[in-house]
Amino acid sequence: MPKFFADPDALAEEIIRDVGTDLVVGLPLGLGKANHVVNALYARACTDPDIKLTLLSALTLEKPRPKGLIEHRFIAPVIDRLFGFYPDLAYADALREGRLPPNIRVVEFFFLAGRWLHVPAAQQNYISANYTHAASYLLARGLNVVTQLVAKRVVDGVPRYSLSCNTDTTLDVLRERRAGRASFKLIAQVNSELPFMPGAGDLAADEFSAVLDSPATDFPLFAPPSEPISDTKYAIGLNAASLVRDGGTLQIGIGQIGDALAQGLILRHRDNAAFHDVIAKLSPVRPAVAREAGAFDAGLYGVSEMLTEAFIGLIDAGILKRAVDGVVLHGAFFLGPKSFYRALREMPPEAIARIQMMPVSFTNELYGEEEQKRRARVDARFINNTMMATLLGAAVSDGLDDGQVVSGVGGQYNFVAQAFALEGARSVLTLEATRQAGRSPKSNILWRYGHETIPRHLRDVFVTEYGIADLRGKSDADVIAGMLAIADSRFQDELARVAKDAGKLPRSYEIPAAHRENHPERIARALKPAREAGLLPSFPFGCDFTEVEQRLIPALEILQGAQRSPRALAGLLWQGLTRTPDEADEACLARLGLDRPKTWAERFYRALVNAALARSRAT
Question: Which is it for strands 329-334 and 301-307: parallel, antiparallel or unpaired?
């Protein structure tokens, strides 16, 4: 049986006495970190240079850091409401500020997107790894402690503990320990908000060396609020939704495009005529790739490293219902808003039993029980996001051309590989056709880039807001033509010229007229009827923002866009100075503390937000 503790400092002392002063500590990816235990070990190592502490981790979660007056006034109350009592990981600020003691090292294989750019210590200690390789890398570095947040349940007076949100690497290293190929102490911290997930992560107490269980160390789970889905992301999600085959298998990556995809599938299932209509408006030309547009009679089976709230929406809609051994969804980790955790906690036993948390070696690979996995993963669609793509079909998902890491490879390569290994499977990589760089848009489809995550020999299907490019088995010239067709029209001519100059596209090639209207305005027009009909809500699966905050979000997006152009900003300012806000707008201004401006800066921002509120209702 484990030793039980109420004081994390006492537990840290016990770990040091038991393991020694050379600590190699594994922290689960994302939500499952035992924050109090980690902070106690970190504090102990800070005061004793004889302790060597290596923290092996991924996806260190941090509260949002607002910039500027308006952003701070909008997001600070949200942070207090959602994260007010969440205990920060002490090592994160020290790592960012370059003040980690020399006896402490933090090594990660996946970053919160963009949060660790230009932080030398984080960038230098990053491990580029497929998610499925992470467990072996942990063990190779001498892992001797694993700390994990767990859910607790007492059955007939005997406690059991669920790995809950993070079965991913923990189950894989536990398998190695049971086989005698690893030796480490498993340390638990009990959290009352964590859902107790049945299945392989439901462990007996004797699997743990120590358990921290105290009201004083209980805390609200990290719960990032859902973000509103833009027209661009909805267009991408709807296009991708037309590739998912009834009776098939679904994996969804991280991000809002996953929510847009799920809502697109729900629209396709519940209102098939409306789905056909919006798809026809988005894609005036019938694509070469086969479209799937019917309702889901047989339903889908889900197997995804990340379990998101979108999957719960698909279960509730009767889409995710094709069971494999009684299970409709296998996942390896989860992270989401408070409503998502609550939904999992409140599920009846027979419903939660149909969702099983598994090791990442199960979700992301075919090795081990391969025959059964192949039978289960029929007509699989692995749908993941990428930042940029080349005209020749390579994907740039995790890093920049100067070597800076934005996020990580994670499971993307694993799912691309499965798409080529499974009969009838496809890898679908989604991306926005452009991004804003300063005052100007830039194309996310490029001729070349100095870093690649997925090489062009594994090119399959790419989806932007402008359509679908089916690249599998195509010649380079055909691939380039396919990518040009889904690029933003403002960049098509230059991209085509570069390809022609390189001798990869015939000089006589002309982009078809049907693909010459790839502009954001066309997407907005195509989606407007469905938006106004409530078929494509900004928050399809609920959100943690108040009604006033939801009204403010599109207005603040307009303001952000106007700040890139002095002329646009001046127009917004003039409109705001000459317009009297109504009662609803006054509530929004009051939410930002601009109802009674006292300084010139507050008067300036009041006028800008006032005008942005008016324009947000007109779009």
Answer: parallel
Q: Is the pTM of this model over 0.85?
A: yes
Please report which residue ranges of 231-356 form alpha helices under DSSP H: 231-241, 256-270, 272-282, 309-316, 338-346, 349-352
Q: Which two tokens stand for residue 20?
A: 């020694």
Q: Is the pLDDT of residue 286 over 70?
A: no
Q: Report how far Cα 611 is from the mean position of its chain's Cα atoms.
A: 33
Q: What is the 3-state secondary structure (H, E, C) of 158-215?
A: EEEEECCCECCCHHHHHHHHHCCCCCCEEEEEECCCCCCCCCCCEEEHHHCCEEECCH
| d(C-alpha 619, C-alpha 602), whole Å | 26
Residues of the chain by 3-state class (helix, strand, coil), percent to 5? 40, 20, 40
**Strand ranges inside 378-466, DSSP E:** 380-385, 388-390, 395-396, 426-430, 434-437, 440-443, 445-446, 461-464
Nearest to 101 by CA among 45, 22, 24: 45
Q: Are the beta carbons of 377 and 364 closer than 8 angstroms?
A: no
Return phi, psi of residue 37, to 5°: -65, -45
Q: 107 has which bridge partners?
A: 56
61, 166 Cβ separation under 8 angstroms: no
> Is it the case that residue 66 has pLDDT exceeding 90?
no
CA dist 225 and 553 (Å) reads 13
Amino acid at 249: T
User: Around Cβ 578, how many Cβ atoms within 10 Å?
Assistant: 10
> In the block, which residue shows the tokens 């963009």?
114
| Of residues 211, 180, 162, 349, the one with CA closest to residue 171 | 162
**Bridging pattern class, strands 461-464 and 426-430:** parallel
pLDDT tens sequence across 434-443: 998 877 899 9
Distance CA 273, CA 280 (A): 11
CA 588 to CA 551: how far, in whole Å? 7
**Structure confidence by residue, pLDDT tens digits, 225-235:** 889 999 999 99
Q: How far apart are CA 214 and CA 210, in angstroms?
A: 13
At 49, is the secondary structure helix, strand, or coil? coil
Q: Is-contact 397 257, C-beta < 8 A?
A: no
Write out the H or E segment, with its range, that includes residue 250. Answer: strand 249-252
Question: H-type helices in 113-156, by residue range?
Answer: 120-124, 134-140
Nearest CA to 393 among 315, 454, 434, 307? 454
Run of H or E residues at 453: none
pLDDT digits (tens, 9 = 90+) for 527-552: 999 999 999 999 999 888 999 999 99
156-172 confidence digits (pLDDT tens): 999 999 999 999 999 99
DSSP-derived 3-state class of residue 578 = coil
> What gap in Å lies between CA 194 and CA 342, rounded to an integer?
9
